[in-house]
């Protein structure tokens, strides 16, 4: 997996961004990306209709908006929730795309959440679901776009950067498969929300899919160092370890009190590059993602200047 996944992109430049001008139905408004999008819509003065299954979770988010309740397994409830929709964003897993296509009015503009997991060489249900969802959108001929984010960081409770920081707090060294040389290109949640907004504002009449990612790929070991520094932690030395033994040890994290869980498959994915060309994202959406240093400073509530290294190891 590397830069040049442009087979999914369509040619053409950005079109002028205007107001959406109609309420946006946000399916999965209680998800991390859904809640962040609702906040971004509110900040932009755009109306939205939260569509979700758990009103208590919605209330806990302290967001304005009258929710419509729909479990995605119930076609009628979803159809009722989307009955008057002209713009629908789905922040739920892409496997639900057929349900959303079936429930949304045929002319509604769709913005769906995919994942760059769809490019992984390692087969799993998550990647399979994203590929199936994307295929369903592209085959539908409907006006919609599936955005495939790379690793998203920066939201409350996310299990990427925050979990890594929690791990680094406990580990004296960082055992990484292949020494952590494989590439990652994380995108901050605020940029994901900006991409959703831009996609909603762009007129479209055919389906497409687009990768959204941070500005530059970097080796996982450098990402780890950046996270440690931004979190104000000692930078651990990186210990190169073959992926096989690490995969066997990963399930033991479940047994260690206070230790964030790591799955064996996550270790395997750390051995493949996840680097992407964001030229099409810039051209189609007009979004310039923030540098990692800025996103990490936002994540850990620091100013950009206040992210000193306590230790220069690794
Ligand atoms: N996290 C990342 O780094 C990353 C990267 C790329 C793509 N993505 C994609 O981003 C999306 C959200 O990811 P996340 O990890 O942040 O997940 P999440 O917060 O757990 O969100 C999942 C959402 O799906 C809803 N949902 C699940 N089953 C449902 C059902 N039967 N009926 C109604 N709603 C249902 C959940 O509702 P409840 O709130 O009621 O549980 C929740 O709102 C996923 O599509 C994921 O593939 C994430």
UniProtKB/TrEMBL annotation:
InterPro entries: ComplexI_NDUFA9_subunit, NAD(P)-bd_dom_sf. Signal peptide: none annotated. SUPFAM superfamilies: NAD(P)-binding Rossmann-fold domains. It comes from the Bacteria. This is NADH-ubiquinone oxidoreductase. It comes from Paracraurococcus lichenis. The lineage of its organism: Bacteria, Pseudomonadati, Pseudomonadota, Alphaproteobacteria, Acetobacterales.
């Amino acid at each position: 997996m590397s830069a040049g996944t442009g087979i999914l992109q369509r040619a053409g430049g950005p079109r002028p961004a205007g107001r959406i001008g109609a309420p946006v139905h946000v399916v999965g408004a209680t998800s991390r990306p859904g809640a962040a999008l609702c906040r971004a819509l509110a900040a932009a003065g755009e109306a939205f209709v939260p569509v979700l299954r758990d009103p208590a979770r919605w209330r806990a988010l302290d967001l304005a908006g009258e929710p419509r309740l729909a479990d995605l397994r119930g076609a009628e409830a979803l159809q009722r929730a989307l009955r008057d929709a002209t713009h629908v964003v789905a922040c739920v897993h892409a496997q639900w795309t057929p349900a959303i296509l079936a429930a949304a009015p045929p002319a509604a503009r769709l913005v769906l959440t995919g994942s760059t997991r769809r490019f992984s060489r390692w087969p799993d249900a998550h990647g399979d679901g994203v590929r199936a969802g994307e295929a369903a959108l592209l085959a539908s001929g409907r006006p919609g776009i599936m955005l495939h984010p790379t690793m998203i960081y920066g939201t409350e409770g996310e299990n990427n950067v925050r979990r890594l920081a929690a791990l680094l707090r406990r580990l004296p060294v960082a055992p990484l498969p292949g020494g952590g040389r494989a590439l990652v290109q994380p995108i901050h949640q605020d940029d994901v929300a900006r991409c959703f907004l831009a996609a909603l504002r762009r007129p479209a009449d055919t389906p497409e899919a687009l990768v959204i990612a941070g500005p530059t790929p970097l080796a996982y070991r450098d990402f780890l160092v950046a996270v440690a520094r931004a979190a104000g932690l000692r930078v651990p030395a990186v210990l190169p370890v073959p992926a096989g033994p690490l995969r066997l040890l990963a399930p033991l994290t479940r047994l260690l009190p206070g230790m964030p869980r790591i799955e064996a498959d996550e270790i395997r994915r750390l051995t493949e590059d996840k680097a992407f060309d964001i030229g099409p994202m810039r051209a189609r959406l007009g979004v310039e993602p923030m540098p990692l240093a800025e996103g990490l400073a936002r994540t850990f509530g620091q100013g950009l200047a206040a992210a000193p290294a306590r230790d220069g190891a690794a």
